[in-house]
Amino acid sequence: MAEQATSLIPDNIEGRRRVVIEHVVPEIDGGMYAIKAIPGETITVEADVFADGHDKVSARLFYKHVDDPEWTEVFMTFLVNDRWQGSFLVERQGHYIYTIEGWVDHLTSWWHETELKINDKQHVRMELLMGAQFLEGMISRAFGDDQEALRNAADLFRDENRYDDSMQLFHSFRMQEWINRYPEKQYLTRYRELPVWVDRPKAQFSAWYSMFVRSSSKDPSRAGTFRDQIELLPRLADLGFDVLYIPPIHPIGHQFRKGKNNSVNSQPDDPGVPYAIGSELGGHDAINPDLGTLDDFKALVAAAKEYDMEVAMDLAIQCSPDHPWVREHPEWFKIRPDGTIQYAENPPKKYQDIYPINFESEDWRGLWMELRRIIFLWAEWGVRLIRVDNPHTKAFKFWEWVIAETRREYPDMIFLSEAFTRPKVMQQLAKVGFSQSYTYYTWRTHKQELEEYMTELTQSEMKYYFRPNFWPNTHDINPYMLQSGHEPLFLIRYFMAATLTSNYGIFGPTYEMMVHEAFPGKEEYLNSEKYEVKHWDWNKENKLTYLIRMVNRIRQENSAMQFTNNLHLCTIQNDQIMAYLKTHPNGNRILCVVNLDGQNKQAGMVHVPANLIGRQDWQSYTAHDLLTGRKYTWSGEWNFVELDPYVMPFHLFRIED
Amino acid sequence: MAEQATSLIPDNIEGRRRVVIEHVVPEIDGGMYAIKAIPGETITVEADVFADGHDKVSARLFYKHVDDPEWTEVFMTFLVNDRWQGSFLVERQGHYIYTIEGWVDHLTSWWHETELKINDKQHVRMELLMGAQFLEGMISRAFGDDQEALRNAADLFRDENRYDDSMQLFHSFRMQEWINRYPEKQYLTRYRELPVWVDRPKAQFSAWYSMFVRSSSKDPSRAGTFRDQIELLPRLADLGFDVLYIPPIHPIGHQFRKGKNNSVNSQPDDPGVPYAIGSELGGHDAINPDLGTLDDFKALVAAAKEYDMEVAMDLAIQCSPDHPWVREHPEWFKIRPDGTIQYAENPPKKYQDIYPINFESEDWRGLWMELRRIIFLWAEWGVRLIRVDNPHTKAFKFWEWVIAETRREYPDMIFLSEAFTRPKVMQQLAKVGFSQSYTYYTWRTHKQELEEYMTELTQSEMKYYFRPNFWPNTHDINPYMLQSGHEPLFLIRYFMAATLTSNYGIFGPTYEMMVHEAFPGKEEYLNSEKYEVKHWDWNKENKLTYLIRMVNRIRQENSAMQFTNNLHLCTIQNDQIMAYLKTHPNGNRILCVVNLDGQNKQAGMVHVPANLIGRQDWQSYTAHDLLTGRKYTWSGEWNFVELDPYVMPFHLFRIED
User: Fold this and answer.
1) Which candidate in B199, B389, B512, B637 is catalytic?
2) Coil, strand, or helix at residue A603?
3) What are the counts of helices (DSSP H) followed by strands (DSSP E) for chain B?
4) By C-alpha distance, which of A364, A366, A365, A406 is closest to A388?
5) Is A187 exposed, middle or buried (0-12, 13-18, 19+ CB in 10 A)?
């Protein structure tokens, strides 16, 4: 009867496992995706850990680099309402995993309950005998001298004649140490393992300068080459940029080549759009000879390194009708009923110069492998940064696979997602592995929307996996708010991109020179570099270049500016002024105050919480404007600021003694 | 090379599956626990369903009773920001499951893109040819005449000479029907299956009257029995209660028996605490002979049925030292170092009359089976409601198992969790299966805390699995706010319990008679019935009994009052008045307005959103107070109320034409 009956209880359950662990943070989609970090970052983990009844519960955090043989165990501390917290430091690049253990801690319960009885002046003879049992249970888990000491302690607790000594031991620091060091994790609950991906530091802190190589020539009679680009490196490094991002450098197609301003009728000397990739000279694995040779490109990569810069390539997975894949792998494209290949469309618009890849191809495996081959080839050329063009029009599963594959071989590789699309899609791309992401910053101009966006980026779950990279413009986007060409707005939009997040970029020469003429009615540049060769006066300096140089240097010198999630939005009773504080555990504290109104002087009282800058609210301190060198003595939490957009539309204060 | 290379792509992935489904609501802990419903309820499901790129995505909801052979498929509609919504009705008790399918809908994409081209006046020859392919693909999935019709339609689309007819078909209602009816779910993503538990209606709507059987005697010279209890049923039914809950009815232990007011020294005639379960006469499977025989108890259960009432038993898993388990299963208890059994403690307090069960017993399987036997035995006695005493001091896994086991045999069984403990623990008990739960209502007295609590219960994830049962008092709790004995407060606390949630209860005679004397300094009754026999004047009527009868009748007659999550808190600019609206899809609308101040008249303007009562904001309507019969003509969204606690501290309006 009993046998038959108990078979109603599944064999695989342990009925005595009483602890529940849930609501673990961070945890992305049940642990399906990794949170992101860089070496030196501290990961703080919280969870609800509880059991039935009144017994004490204990919780520990476990973590390891996947290459480590052993887990490291970390205390978790009780916060409130069954919530526990623990932290660990990630020191190396690569994959970490972490998890949580919780158990009903009879040992701790025993100590606390005995303590309550002692305080109630009860004689705790029976409790000491229980204690002796617990101490004996510890012996097998103990190290070195502790084994002997525990045995003696158990004897002591059993000795009725040594009650006072027992009391002394019971209350000793040693007793607490033993309890913590040799817990009895009976029927413990262990949570699933959750992943962390640790990138190299540049994933978290970078300043991107984007330009077309063909516009790098100082000689107005010819287009630029990699060699010309090399000559510009000292200037870009001096401006303080550490990434040079260049649009595709592959052979450009001939069929349906676009002319100036995206005209469907090109002239014979039109150089074509670099995104119409591929010709009889090759595809994504070939170099456009107009820019130079592969060796020239490698020389550019090497030269950049000398200036502490890196070159980011541009991965646009699409083809011109002349791309070798069209001939060799027609199965990678969509075929129309008439047997022709489907060109790109955004109905009713047609883009006959571009063939999109069909990620639902029967030969998707072959396609994936070819794209992997391309990325690995670029890596062999020395490239460790890839900006991906429109990743949101390619399958998520492909990115998840190819990024993981790449990292296995090249853990330094950083992928920037150029997805300007719906929020869920942008988030998903970050989840599946993109290291950095373009954002809506380009269109967030008012204080309320900027503050809401920053709150979403730095306070929601996104903060764990989505690293924003702010761009005030790109070669595709000439935002309406800059089309006036009003200088203070160029300064403001640059400044916020460079200070709100730790990753930012500009479409360089165009932004520097404050080019603003738009294609009529569009958020695009007139005479865009996408369709023609430009020549720039690289000796030109202006207020903006002065500030770029300064801000980039200040970013390098102040660790608080090298992170994004350390942002605190400061209250200020003026809808035209935005203020934000960034702090670093090393004591570095940066306060930015920006007048969003490019036309008028604005003033207000800004609130800097004393506790965030390590001060009492009655203490005075120095707000040192690193842009002007001026120092202000501030006291209390509210202080006055006034910003004239025609003089300097922002403060970049370091909080000093 | 290719073979070796593609082996880098795991065999088990389908790279063409492009749709992501996430953030499904409702979903409790990844589907580990069921949401709850009753027959006739509509379950609304939302999810993010999206893919890369610009193709159209479609989503469908699937559900079935686990006994159904087939799934039912339901349309989901697009809301905004990649969010989709669908609903289904649960008609029967038992287990349902639901899930979501999403796929890239090339068919719908084709239709919309072609439509855009037609609107742009393009000739869509090629698109019609594609359409013919899609139509042919549908044939194999089509039923009856549609197969032939689809074949003809494909021919039509291919016929260059019948372009106008093709256009007509393209824009026809029939075309849309086909697209919806015969989708091509290529590479579809199917979400995991999520559970619903459908209880019988009483789990959602019940009025509990709690009393001690031994206090049911009308003869002051002797204690009450089941037979006396039967005689009280007509009165309780007349008051409108449908559940009679009685504390444990098992033999009471002798060792360390408690006397009056929880005294450790009992007198020979003290009847003992019913929670000190078990004596030489038996344990949880035996009946205390002082109350009658098992047949008497069964007679009570049967008699209750005649009055549309049910008897709820009380499951307190603990023993007096005289319980048979102590002798037969000492391994189910904690043994102290001296070999004695550990009694209950809340250090420094000791409860030597109670032995708690050790759910970490080596023989936990035997223990679980014995408890299952007890519950099944009670079910054989005709019991279908069990109030569980302190379930939070027993293992969650046990409850999960035993509730599931019970429901397999007795799907009508309802378990009420009497857990007054930390929020996470109360929630977990509801997740693992308790049908109803006691709440913090007993201590929520101010408007802000009541509104916050109602918002948590009816708006947070709790609304899917936690059914609150509000009690203004219990036999254990004489709340401070009622210890004054002030009549309006008894009316108010009763009224809110009975109207805020659809399940409520009172510790009956004590509450009815407005007994309020407290054990000094405690939230307990003086001369509590837990320790002694009481006699009540069952003929007594007062303002409260008058209102109880009325409110219970109104609850029966108004379906809006039979649910909890249909609550809308109404704005009113007076912190002493709380107003809430409940609506039912059948048009029933109930507005409660309560003056929380038991001392003073309070007035204010109450806001009833016109859309929630199916009116335009300029329309007038009747607010019919069902308690007084008075009708008020209200117009607009803001109307005046004034409540005198000494007359009637609340309105119970039905919104009428």
Assistant:
1) B389
2) strand
3) 16, 30
4) A406
5) middle
| Range B126-148 burial, b when 16+ CB lie within 10 A, else e | bbbbbbbebbbbbbeebeeebee
pTM value? 0.94
Q: How far is CA B285 from CA A309, B278, B331, B374, B416, in A?
A: 81, 9, 19, 6, 20
List the CATH code of the domain at A2-105+188-198: 2.60.40.10
Number of residues in chain A:
657
Which CATH code for domain B208-249+287-315+364-557?
Answer: 3.20.20.80
Give the start-to-end residue ranges of the domains of chain A: 2-105+188-198, 106-181, 208-249+287-315+364-557, 567-656
How far is A184 from A131, CA to CA, in rounded Å?
13
Top-level CATH class of A567-656?
Answer: mainly beta
In sequence order, which residues have a C-beta less than 8 Å from that of residue B268 and are 6 or more positions away? none
Give B123's contacts in chain A (Cβ within 8 Å).
Answer: none
Token couple for B505: 């209860």
- Express each pLDDT in A471-488 by its tens digit: 999 999 999 999 999 999
Strands B385-389 and B414-418: parallel
Residues A439-473: tens digit of each pLDDT: 999 999 999 999 999 999 999 999 999 999 999 99
Are the C-beta atoms of residues B655 and B621 closer than 8 Å to each other?
A: yes
> CA of A91: how far to CAs of A63, A64, A407, A502, B427, in Å?
12, 10, 17, 20, 38
Assign domain A106-181 to a CATH class.
mainly alpha
Measured in whole angstroms, how far is the alpha carbon of residue A133 from the centre of its chain? 50
Residues with Cβ within 8 Å of B466's Cβ and at least 6 positions away in sequence, in order, are B426, B427, B430, B437, B457
**Distance from C-alpha of A397 to C-alpha of A433, rounded to nearest angstrom:** 10
In single-letter form, the type of residue at position B196 comes to: V
Q: In this structure, what are the phi and psi dihedrals at residue A642, rounded to the nearest 5 degrees?
A: -145, 130
Residue A28 carries which DSSP code?
B
- Is the Cβ pair B424, A346 closer than 8 Å? no
The angle subtended at Cα B606 by Cα B602 and Cα B611, nearest 5°, is 165
In 3D space, the residue among A611, A621, A623, A547 whose CA is nearest the CA of residue A579 turns out to be A623
Q: What are the respective helix, strand and coil percentages of chain A, to the nearest 5?
A: 35, 25, 40
Minimal Cβ distance to A368: which of B9, B22, B130: B9
**pLDDT tens for residues B170-207?**
999 999 999 999 999 999 999 999 999 999 999 999 99
Nearest C-alpha neighbor of A628 from the set A614, A617, A639, A644: A644
Q: Which of A4, A9, A123 has the most B C-beta neighbours within 10 Å, making it the best mutation to test the interface with B?
A: A9
Nearest chain B Cα distance for residue A594, angstroms: 31
Percent of chain A with pLDDT over 70: 99
ipTM of the complex: 0.94
Tell me, yes or no, if the two domains A2-105+188-198 and A567-656 fold the same way.
yes
The residue among A579, A655, A649 whose CA lies nearest residue A623 is A655
Q: Which residues of A touch B13 (CB under 8 A)?
A: 397, 401
B29, B130, B392 member nearest A53 (Cβ): B392
Q: Is the backbone peptide bond immediately before B289 cis, with ω within 30 degrees of 0?
A: no
Which of A52, A160, A431, A432 best probes binding to B when mutated, by most B CB atoms within 10 angstroms?
Answer: A52
Which pLDDT value is given to residue B3?
A: 45
β-partners of residue B95 are B197
B115-169: pLDDT as tens digits: 999 999 999 999 999 999 999 999 999 999 999 999 999 999 999 999 999 999 9
Tokens (6 digits) for B70: 């087939």
Contact A384, A416 (CB under 8 A): no
* Residue A3 confidence (pLDDT): 45
